[in-house]
């Protein structure tokens, strides 16, 4: 049976896009406390089912698919620019297709405006009405108001007019930053991207026998299987090792492991892979917040995802990408790399930052893994035991050495050399994914 929290989320998901909701309304409709309704609405906001706007309220918005995640709704624009809605509130749930900066004559501006776009402009009232009639929304910069006639058009067409105190350049920068951040989010692989869903998952019930397990296991390539009750709730996991040598009349509940390692579908693949290595498991059940089984992921799935991600074009640039872009190979020595301390790699004193140093260590270690082991791994421990400051513009050579290499782990040592002097030494240990 679904929890109250789940019931509220399903209720919200079933509302019409654009409909306003409130804590009191949800509490009354589903006979729950206002505290429970508030927590569920916040979760719906995290899942991008609703958007809350100051002085407007909470609005049901269309949940964007991952491939369209970089598109903003007008409600999100209001929050990004700390805006005030002057008209067209009923259209806040709509998605904008592009934004146009109105820094030109009206006839020229009209060539670039079409339905679904957002015109960023100052207090040019003729431009406001012209854009609204073309099906565009308006973002007025400088904190200006607009004519009452424009507000009436906005209400009739359900196209928002938003006012912000920021100038045009700042607003364009803020919107670009928001889209850019969502592009980065789009590239991050989640468990939901690689899950084997429940309908394709082989699972057992506690009352199944070892004999039945052996019959199924002989036909499958898996080494472990989730165990669920009659409500599809996860109660354990059973592996070939659990069943080997056991009498065939025994039940799964007698040999299964309870409290298995699990993940949820919104966890990153990197975090899920980390957990699998840490716990030494090959298969992990994917469950919802109430432990109902949604599917499984395997180490093979994680490895394939990592390999696929490396072949994809990168659209958003993270801090790690910025650091990685400064790293250069040393042609005469494949076990070394070089980098220059650019402004992006410095702390507030203008010297190489510890964060950049750590990123360089882990990224270089991953490269060396592929060269020596042709494998994927995650850093388990990192120690930097001697540091001198490297100034802005300094050229640094990083020399590596393998201290220990085994089937499950590898240890590297690194020396950072600047002006022929060792300025930092470090050791990184990686746990390896087994294919």
TrEMBL record:
SUPFAM superfamilies: CBS-domain pair, HprK N-terminal domain-like, Thioesterase/thiol ester dehydrase-isomerase. Gene3D superfamilies: CBS-domain, Hotdog Thioesterase, HprK N-terminal domain-like, Winged helix-like DNA-binding domain superfamily/Winged helix DNA-binding domain. PANTHER family: CBS DOMAIN-CONTAINING PROTEIN, CBS DOMAIN-CONTAINING PROTEIN CBSX3, MITOCHONDRIAL. It comes from Savagea serpentis. The keyword Cytoplasm does not apply. Keywords: CBS domain. This is CBS domain-containing protein. It comes from the Bacteria. Residues 195-255, 256-314 form the CBS domain. InterPro entries: CBS_dom (IPR000644), CBS_dom_sf (IPR046342), Diverse_CBS-Domain (IPR051257), DRTGG (IPR010766), HotDog_dom_sf (IPR029069), Ser_kin/Pase_Hpr-like_N_sf (IPR028979), Thioestr_dom (IPR006683), WH-like_DNA-bd_sf (IPR036388).
